[in-house]
Every structure is written in C-alpha cells, then in structure tokens.
Amino acid sequence: MILQRSTVVHSVLPALLLAGLPVSSAFAEGLPRNWPMGSKEIEHHLESGQFTIKEVKSAGGGVTGASKLKIAFPDGAEVKVKWKAVPPGGLDGWNNSPRKELAAYEVQKWFLDENDYVVPTAVPYCIPLDAYKAISPTPVASVKGTKCVLGILSVWLSDVDAPLKFWNPERFKSDPLFARNMADFNLLTYLVDHRDGRQGNLMVSTDPSDPRVFAVDNGIAFEGFPWNFFVTNWNKIRVPYLNRRSIDRLRTIDRARMDKLETIIEVALDKDGVYHVVQPGPDLQPSKGVREPNGHIQFGLTRKEIDKLEKRVKTLLADVDKGRIKVK
Fold this sequence. Notes:
The protein has 328 residues and is of the alpha+beta class. The protein folds into two domains: 12-155; 160-254 and 304-327, no CATH class. 23% of the residues lie in helices and 21% in strands. The longest helix has 19 residues, at 303-321. The N and C termini lie far apart (47 Å).
C-alpha cells in the first residue's frame, strides 16, 4: 500500500548510545552500494529524529507479516526499511524473534568493520497506535495496557538478489573479493547458528565489482527450534577457508564481551504508554531471553544460549589451530 498522504512519526527512542553523532544525508564513504548510509548514522536517524512514512508496501514472502517502508528524515535523507512487529500475543517467536535479530547484528561487530557488515542495521522501535494506522488500519498494542506497536526496523538493502543457487564454489575459487565476503558471511552464520537458509533470507550483491553477501533474516538462530529442515543451512562452516583477520579479531572476544548479549536492549514505558529505550540494567532472569519487570522489557540472549555461543567460538578456534578449518 502506498500512502495517499505522509504520516509523521515522532521518534520514541532517545539516542542514548549515539548521542552527539553528526547526522547528514550524505552517503558514508567506502560503504558498499547496497547500504543507503553508514550503519551508525542510520541508527542515529532512527533513534533520535522524526521521520515521515512516504510509502508502505508488503515485504513479500514470509509468514511474519513484515512491511517495506520508505521513510524520510527532516534533513532530507530517505531510506527504505523493513518493519517487523513483535509476534502477536508475545514478544518472541520461533520464526519472529526480535531479540535474536538484534543479537546477530551485535555479534558481527566482534570481527567486522562497519563497512563489511553482513547483517543489515537493526533498531528496535515503538510506534504509537495513532501513527501505526499508516501500516495497519486496526493496530493492536504489542503489550496489553500500552499504546504502541513494538518491533524492529532494519535497513532495506538495494541492488541485491536472492539467487536460487546461493552457494557458488566456482566463484569462491575465482573471485577473491567474493571469497572474502562469503567467508565472513559464513563465520557469522556459524556463530549465530543460523538455521533458515531459504531463498530470500540470503542475499548477494548484483554488482560484480563489489560482491557482498548478506543475511537479512536471522530470527531462527542461537539454537532455535524448530528450524527449516528442508534447505541448506549455514550453521556449519561450508566455505574452503575463513579470513585470518576475522579469526584473529574473534580471538580477542572474552566471556565478558559475550555476556553483554544478555541484555542487548531495554525499553521502558512513559506516561503515555509508549516504550522508550533506557540504559540496560542487570539481567533480571538469565533463563529467559525476554524479561518484563515493572513496565520494562529486556531483550537479549539467555545464559544457556550464550554458553553455547561461547562453545561454538572455542570449537571453531580449536579447529583452526589444529588445521581442520583453513584460514587465509
């Protein structure tokens, strides 16, 4: 659906993490053409400013009811984003898990620079019910007694394709840039235990001079069950070798860094019944990935999921050291 009139949505998430970051509509230098602007710049735009919804369309296939939005910021910058509300009747689902989407976005930062991200920028957002009518004529609050719809806004990548034959071993051998990007993609999908490798979730740039690879849907991850049994999943190392630089950076990640995934984001209700991002507090219930104490919501990984993530890291590094997994 394309809106007949623009709808202005006021940001309900203060820029706590990125306060003071300069904002401009200029594209960030050095970024792949698939990204509309720098990842941190997009985070700042989405968290701290107003934006106008210019278009609302269906995001295509899938069962989670995602929408494709075109939004414009006050400085004139426009981007396309995917909007996916939290699952109806809950805040976490087997195939729609905002906390796992956010965790995958964070894990890639362990070994990748911003210009090399394989998971699109993902930001939690709460849209007041009146404004949400631009997306759905009969919006329902995500949490009973509140007045907003909570979900994830993620960057809509441009100039990408979802090829039927995603894995291309011949290109891996002949194209060093593709090999480098594919290796980092596979490292990320292994670490997060990505188990939904259906066509549409895995993207390749259509620009042969900049052959990027992306994982755009990461909700079935971190030991998720059930998973997609009928496709080739990338929770295993399938490429001939990994990038030495990425492995060296992964070696620097200790358990303290991993434990920060327990509470990736925390939101709290304001007097109008709308959620705002607040400084994350201590994990109040390590056995759960979503906690709801006293008007707050904490999103993160469970202690058990982090234990298994740590085990995957150690197993991978041991296999590299023993020569079972090659690096280059």
